[in-house]
């Protein structure tokens, strides 16, 4: 934690994020897609706590102007391993939809997934009740997971079906 003391708002009952990962096997796609959906006010608080500065994230221009802070924050709170190898995650874009931010990411497509592991600890430094839901779609097969303060890593296999 770098900076601001931000109390948990007792009227804000839900601290949740959704991580979606998708790649179709057998396609010529060079990149697989990842999207993170979070509430904008939670994102703003997390970036303020991380950077020590309050950065407004409530406009499209703010998405672009805070890109470096967002990238740095998520690079420290999000990791991906496929088949035992860590993969770098690329920043693609950020958009605001209602009261949420959707952060679009990508990583090099992997021809065959056997095992995938995702570690996501974002917002937990501020919101102990934060839950991050994971949805993974690979070759039409779906997997779901839930991460929280006592479990920030989800792993699943695509080999035994």
Verbal overview:
With 161 residues, the protein is of the alpha+beta class. It contains three helices and ten strands, in the order E-E-H-H-H-E-E-E-E-E-E-E-E. The relative contact order is 0.23. The model is unreliable at 1-6 (pLDDT under 50).
Descriptive labels:
161 residues, alpha+beta, six-stranded mixed sheet, four-stranded antiparallel sheet, 3 helices, 18% helix, globular
- In which range does the helix fraction lie? 10-25%
Unreliable residue stretches: 1-6
Tell me, what's the shape?
Answer: globular
- Give the integer mean of the pLDDT values: 85
What portion of the residues fall into strands of 2 or more residues? 35-45%
- Number of helices, where a helix is a run of at least 4 consecutive DSSP H or I residues: 3
Distance between the termini: 42 Å
Along the chain, the helix and strand elements come as EEHHHEEEEEEEE
Structural class given helices, strands, pairing? alpha+beta
Radius of gyration: 16 Å
Largest sheet: spatial strand order: 5-6-2-1-8-9
Describe the sheet with the most strands. Answer: 6 strands, mixed
Tally of extended strands? 10
């Amino acid at each position: 934690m770098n900076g601001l003391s931000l109390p948990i708002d007792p009227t804000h009952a839900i601290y949740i994020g959704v991580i979606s990962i998708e790649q179709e096997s057998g396609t010529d796609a060079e990149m697989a897609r990842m999207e993170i959906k979070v509430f904008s006010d939670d994102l703003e608080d997390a970036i303020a706590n991380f950077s020590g500065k309050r950065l407004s994230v409530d406009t499209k221009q703010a998405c672009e102007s805070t890109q470096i802070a967002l990238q740095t924050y998520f690079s420290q709170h999000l990791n991906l391993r496929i088949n035992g190898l860590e993969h770098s995650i690329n920043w693609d874009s950020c958009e605001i939809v209602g009261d949420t931010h959707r952060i679009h990411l990508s990583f090099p497509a992997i021809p065959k997934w056997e095992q995938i592991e995702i570690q996501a600890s974002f917002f937990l430094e501020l919101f102990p009740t934060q839950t991050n839901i994971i949805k993974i779609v690979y070759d039409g097969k779906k997997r779901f997971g839930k991460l929280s303060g006592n479990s920030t890593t989800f792993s699943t296999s695509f080999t035994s079906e």
